[in-house]
Amino acid sequence: MELYIEKIVITPIAITDPPLLNAAGLHASYALRTVVEIITNTGIAGVSEIPGNEEVNKALEEIAPLLRGWDPFQLNGLQRLIHNTFGADKPDARGDAPWDQRKVVHIFSALEVACLDVIGKYTDRPVVDLLGGKMRDEVPFAAYLFYKYEGAGGRLGFDMDPSAKGWAAARQQAAIDPQGVVDQAKAMCREFGFQSIKLKGGAFPPNEEVNAMLALHEEFGGMPLRHDPNANWTMGSALSYGTKMQDVLEYWEDPVRGQKNMAELRRQMKVPFATNMCTTSFDDFPESVRLHSEDIILSDHHFWGGLKASMELSRLCMTFDRALSMHSNSHLGISLAAMVHLGAAIPNFSYALDTHYPWQSEEIIKGGRLAFENGAVAVPEGPGLGVELDHAALQSLHNNYLECGLTERNDEIEMQKVNPDWSFKPVRW
Amino acid sequence: MELYIEKIVITPIAITDPPLLNAAGLHASYALRTVVEIITNTGIAGVSEIPGNEEVNKALEEIAPLLRGWDPFQLNGLQRLIHNTFGADKPDARGDAPWDQRKVVHIFSALEVACLDVIGKYTDRPVVDLLGGKMRDEVPFAAYLFYKYEGAGGRLGFDMDPSAKGWAAARQQAAIDPQGVVDQAKAMCREFGFQSIKLKGGAFPPNEEVNAMLALHEEFGGMPLRHDPNANWTMGSALSYGTKMQDVLEYWEDPVRGQKNMAELRRQMKVPFATNMCTTSFDDFPESVRLHSEDIILSDHHFWGGLKASMELSRLCMTFDRALSMHSNSHLGISLAAMVHLGAAIPNFSYALDTHYPWQSEEIIKGGRLAFENGAVAVPEGPGLGVELDHAALQSLHNNYLECGLTERNDEIEMQKVNPDWSFKPVRW
Question: Nearest 10 degrees: CA dihedral of A309, A310, A315, A317?
Fold first, then answer.
């Protein structure tokens, strides 16, 4: 039967986000996401979720009419159409912030994942089978710790909700020192069963962050630990403070800025290096190979051009002896489901994936939030991504978007609300 | 609906092949292929075709029972199963001959392509759509010229068939000098409309082959020309004789042996280098990048691990600024169809593909031999590969296999029947 796209619905949403600290400042009380629904002539609805950004939303609105009548299987052609429409992202488009600021890759990811969801539903197969099939039934994630201020985010602003219990209560607590970080880790691991732990760093002076990592090691013994200062340490700090903690690290993510620095530092240390900041596209790969800037690529299908491109990246990594794991941003269940399908398909899985999901509390998929068991998420049952949009919940989060007035992520502005003198520095410590 | 493999049928066949010369000797009067049929519980039959070899056939027979009940979508798992069963091909398993002598990659290709044919039929989609969809409706091939002795091959041995007309008659003619090569090219291009021309070399002294290339240039003007001595020229010959013809070449394929020599020679010349002998696996890729041994990878899904792996190779090539084209061996329409689906899907198509198909006269697919128009083959219509096995024709070529007594390709032995003193030399000229 003929299958084509009849309509594309683009819905920006704002999701409650706590006051998490990172190298670029402070998370706003809402994080933005964009949800894409592709509706076919046969009534299939495919969905996807990407980081929210007004410029990307506009571009999606611009390309949507061109895709009326498009066969969702034509993903190679879709990529060409997008490139013909918008060109390619400029080499510096990723930006200096911890998150990826490119446009074209995000658009392709949004459309590709929704098309794969359509294809899965059309063929009655889970997306993982469109990526070559399952190598594992469940996908392990890591506890993603953040330095944070007190509070919950969202409609509450950063107020506390005194009625919250368990992890929902723990999630509101401040964590600005080793003990706070350890307490957060204990609560998060108790709730989700994570078997490895990452601390988002770059927020406090290196000696404090090293002490937090050593405290985690003290508390969690052999648990794999990771630290990510988002490339804002100097070479000097990284060498001297990194040396103090490398024995307790499973990997070190983006200690310094740029492939060249990463490579130079890596040669002087004995901990594997990971990145989602210095090698973030296929274009970056040759120089990464030449310099050997990292051991582990933290891919993200949202900015590596979708799920099929991520399978190709998996092959690149195997070919050039890089491990592959995954980066995340604040996200909901559609992105999580896509990450799980991909994580279940890649042959070279050796590091639990990142997810911000525990920091979110809302959901826009029917049946509510996806569950973690022993830190892992089972590949969703059912065709496509295995999730279905809850339109009432979507509308409610879209209302949040309209009300909150945010149009893009800007952690610097949020931080300046707390500390007016603060400004973003690509290399701070 | 549940879908699983119920039966795998492995049928070795022998196809009529003329006395073509190459660096390893002489084609036998039959070329061996193996046809794999995968029959599912739902009655779908998926097919594939690979180079025939007794050892590979035995391995296929060994793994077939393990795949009873296997879901054909589980291709990542299939690869793991094959590796767990047979290990990986050893680094030197490719061998020195022009054709690839590895076992495991061929097994995987045979099973993967047949599974993709099943999946296409199950989902009512052409295989190209399982590879991301069509970038083009037809796939250009090159005229593949061979030095040859007189005769047709097959049941005729190398006798002539006086009733043959047109290309069937021209195909029987000897071509052992520039005029013979030009005549062959004219007849082949007249019949199939090819827009580029390759001469399989390595058979005669370099000055004679250079003269043949110059004669082709003289006759065909701006037509893209390629020459492939299958790595049996010395560095000295390649440099001095290559210099005489590089201005008329679109690319030069494997003039010398090994990545190191290729890289060294390439730096001294101004013609793009292609290979299907020095960079023939993902394992070879890092060293190819380091040395820059070639500009164009001549992939072959039969030994790069199937069609999805070839799409991954396409990404590797784009990432590292290599072009991608395709190698071939004597083959029938199932392999040609698979090549066309792949050729239609790859985004980075810039060189017409190789095919031996004009040298064959038989076919095992319903409707007979696939057609070339202006040197290109249209992507077959219909689900899967778009071809269906003609079991009577298959049986007849299987009978040839049983009668001919060949169990593997050995061009040296065939050449020794003509010239008893001849022996294979990896580097001859």
Answer: 130
Beta-carbon contacts of A170 under 8 Å, excluding residues fewer than 6 positions away, are: A183, A184, A187, A188, A191
- Note whether A289 contacts B285, CB cutoff 8 Å: no
Q: Is A374 left (phi over 0), alpha (psi -120 to 50) or beta?
A: left
What is the residue-level pLDDT of chain A in tens, covering all 429 positions?
A: 699 999 999 999 999 999 999 999 999 999 999 999 999 999 999 999 999 999 999 999 999 999 999 999 999 999 999 999 999 888 888 888 888 889 999 999 999 999 999 999 999 999 999 999 999 999 999 999 999 999 999 887 888 988 999 999 999 999 999 999 999 999 999 999 999 999 999 999 999 999 999 999 999 998 999 999 999 999 999 999 999 999 999 999 999 999 999 999 999 999 999 999 999 999 999 999 999 999 999 999 999 999 999 999 999 999 999 999 999 999 999 999 999 999 999 999 999 999 999 999 999 999 999 999 999 999 999 999 999 999 999 999 999 999 999 999 999 999 999 999 999 999 999
d(C-alpha B283, C-alpha B91), whole Å: 8
For A271-311, the pLDDT digits (tens) are: 999 999 999 999 999 999 999 999 999 999 999 999 999 99
The shortest C-alpha distance from A255 to chain B (Å) reads 26
Exposed, middle or buried by CB within 10 Å (0-12, 13-18, 19+), for B70?
Answer: buried
Asked: is A5-124+390-403 a CATH 2.130.10.10 domain? The reply is no
Q: CB–CB of A175/A183 below 8 Å?
A: yes
Binary contact (B129, A74; C-beta < 8 A): yes
Res. B219: pLDDT tops 90: yes
Alpha-carbon span A303 to A305, nearest angstrom = 5
Q: Give the Cα separation of B46 and B85 in Å (integer).
A: 23
Exposure string for A175-188, b = 16+ CB within 10 A, e = fewer: bbebebbbbbbebb
- C-alpha span between B349 and B347 (Å, rounded): 6
Chain centre distance of CA A382: 24
Phi, psi for B225 (deg, rounded to 5)? -120, 145
B390 contacts: CB under 8 Å, gap ≥ 6: B363, B364, B365, B366
Decide if A316 touches B, using CB distance below 8 A: yes
Q: Residues A121, A200, A302, A356: which is the catalytic one?
A: A200
Which residues face A7 on adjacent strands?
A: A39
Q: Is B3 on the interface with A (CB under 8 A)?
A: no
Question: What residues does A50 pair with on adjacent strands?
Answer: A34
ipTM of this complex: 0.96
Residue intervals of chain A classified under CATH 3.20.20.120 are 130-378
Instruction: Enumerate the CATH 3.30.390.10 domain ranges in chain A, comma separated.
Output: 5-124+390-403
B112 touches chain A (CB under 8 A): no
Burial readout A356-366 (b: 16 or more C-beta within 10 A, e: otherwise)? bbbbbbbbbbe
The CATH code of domain A130-378 reads 3.20.20.120
For residue B91, what pLDDT is reported?
Answer: 82
